[in-house]
Amino acid sequence: MTFAQPELRVPDEPHCDPNSGCITCGDVAEEMRVVAIDAERELALCEHASGERQTVEIALVQPVGDSDVLLVHAGTAIAKVDKEPRTPGRGSSMKSPRRSRGQDVPAGAEDVAGVVR
Amino acid sequence: MKFVDEFRDADLGKVMAGEILAAVEPGRTHKFMEVCGGHTHSIYKYAIDDILPDEVELVHGPGCPVCVMPMGRIDDGIALANEDGVIFTCFGDMMRVPGSDGTFTDAKARGADIRMVYSPLDALRLAKQNPDRKVVFFAIGFETTAPSTALTLKRAKAEGVENFLCMCNHVTIVPPLRALLDSPDLRLDGFIGPGHVSTVVGVRPFEFIPADYERPLVTAGFEPLDILQAIHMLLEQLGSGRCEVENQYKRVVPYEGNAAALKVMSEVFELRPHFEWRGLGFISQSALKLSDAYAEFDAEEHFTVPGVRVADPKACQCGEVLKGVIKPWECKVFGTACTPEHAIGTCMVSPEGACAAYYNYGRFSREKEAV
Q1: Do B353 and B34 form a contact (C-beta atoms < 8 A)?
Q2: What is the pTM of this model?
């Protein structure tokens, strides 16, 4: 059983995903797992739990390895996430991926090598 | 979903709500400010305030960079977007923020080439794809977002991209907190600290709050149990007579922050002498501009912007909402003249703004109460 999430009205204008918050506001970041790394350009192809993939700057969290979980904000990883956290109330806490900003994947984001085009 | 449901476990939430109830001092109201809009969004989304005892009141803070952006900066951005040959880029949440003559969406409808991007890198990519155009990126955000802009500017410089420009509106979190604490009309018992800003700046910058103002702060994550745990930690501090900075979000936030991010920010940015915050007025050294080493990318150096200060609409009470003096529903135009579709104030524009978050989620429970 989880907290209920009421249905949202979706604004009719271009907008970040209101269900998960927007990019700039509210300090929002999302957790993504590293799929592939372009070490030379310090970029990584990362995957969100929802399956969405995105190219991410990893210069600020080096060294990064395959399967690392990164906290990503506006296309940049700002922290690594503890892989083996525990739940709150049991001594510590667990990681909490926020949903991604939306379903749009920037063109070419599937291709790490072609990202900063 | 793994690693999400655990932090949204309603049964555990009820247990924690019971612990919070046991920790409150009966008859005393404990006012805690959640600094950041992400927390505000989660509090309304998961109806966290509904399961808190009456003795705990949550006050919404100024940690939404869209919400605190003054109208004059929007006008400046629109002026840049209207320059010949400019592709103006911004995050989606900025598109509907009203300036004195409409929003970026309105300006786009009038013919300006304004495009939404999801990251500064997207804007840089546009610049590379359009070498005969100037691509201006409207940079906005607290220390969570500033490293991303800084890295992109470093990349632009390294790759010699000369048609990429940045209108810098990045703000910093500590000066407005200090301004709030100095405000005579604000009474708070503690703070829920910003989780993701702290991944960059660390926990240390908030130590002035217990030291100078004798208020505890707990840096917290964004899931319901994170926030409940942070409230419990604050109550425990008050109950035991402690007053310090604690970190509930240790799985992500290191005490010292991200040294690489702070380094790149210090290379690319410098502090502005002062910056206007909606509702809070001018706050000294509270925002960033491009450093001399990156002045060639500064859109405000490249073009002339009006730079006019614009007063908020009289009906708008975003200032009081941002300072936590009034609740969103106490604003005269909340939900009537001001809605997410036709926002008068910035707090109704961003989903992280207190008014939009409350409009989208909280009003249902209040309507139920009224019935």
Answers
A1: no
A2: 0.82
